[in-house]
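user: can you give me the structure for this one chain? tokens are fine.
assistant: on it. calling the predictor now.
[tool input]
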Amino acid sequence: MTKTTHLHPADLRGFARLATQATAGLADLVEAMHHTIARRARGGEPQAPGRTRGLTGLVYKSVRGVTRLVGGGVDALLGQLKPTLAGRASSPEREAVLAALNGVLGDYLVASDNPLAIPMRLRRAGRPLVLETQALAAALPQAGGKLAVLAHGLCMNDLQWRRDGHDHGEVLARDLGYTPLYLHYNTGLHTSTNGRTLAGLLEVLLQQWPHRVEELVIVAHSMGGLVTRSACHYAVAAGHAWPRRLSKLAFLGTPHHGAPLERGGNWVDVILDAAPYAAPFARLGKIRSAGITDLRYGNVLDEHWQGRDRFARARDTRQFVPLPKGVQSYAIAATTGKKPGDLRDRLLGDGLVPVASALGRHDESHRSLSFPKSRQWIGYGMSHLDLLGRTEISAQLVRWFGPVRSAGR
């Protein structure tokens, strides 16, 4: 029987690297604060955080040097443990921690070649699928020609589609005969980066699927919806074949036009940068990953972020990206309010995403997404995460995805 563990050897090495880099980063932060206060005390104007000089500068330099030297030794030592600890299956707890870490620092993990970075894969029961015809046939002997891909949201993973004993994918399999596959990806990367990768992944999947693909549907929660819209855009641009098999898209609490909490974090950056003594601490506000800052307005294209300071205060200037043509697209929103128009409904939405954003509505009508009224649904008394586990949601998906198609496609 395969043993499970909450910690893998690569995890140890990855966390050791993060600890090393964090210590060195803290030394930079403290030195920057020291430098800023010293300049103010001498009557100088505050400048960008810099290095101190003399004995003080030597101390900070030594802290950074020793930290990196020790960190390199720890990394080499942990590398020797890999044969001893390898081969153990992961645990849901480990998966959840890694997913959260990737959501907050995923772009940094990739840039620093940290083994904690999650590669994009399609999985079943937490196991990655090898996208080769014979391997897929062996792993999924009951598979048919109807595929359902489920894409999770920020700081989450594919195992978290099971909530309170319920899994939307299993309901679609039981009631409509879909074969559910679960996307697992690094949510800290730019949405467009993940979108382009997903486009390529789905192309390989359909090419290697052991049966003729009759239909592909995608169910996407939160950020997963932005990644899916990005994938559709880049797939069409690349001339991929899989969009021609895509018949339905369901978005659950997707921030099509952004999430206020990210904008709140952005205001923290502005406030800290404006205070002379606090300016060095502004870098702490900038720990947010590219994936998180893409949620400010709902970025789905490279052009939405390239050449811009993603932490600078700016208005929404995104190029409009419509829903994919020829696909029945559905939007589900949730609100903690008990009825339409009450205070919770108007101000909080599902606690993370406003109802208007989830339904694709924008104050500027030309930016609104064209979800027909018959393809919109609002769940009252529900939170953002309730969208994953409430039976009312899967029941609505079954009604929409069932054999009787609504008019107006």
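assistant: here you go. The chain has two domains: 4-89, 91-409. The first helix runs from residue 9 to 41.
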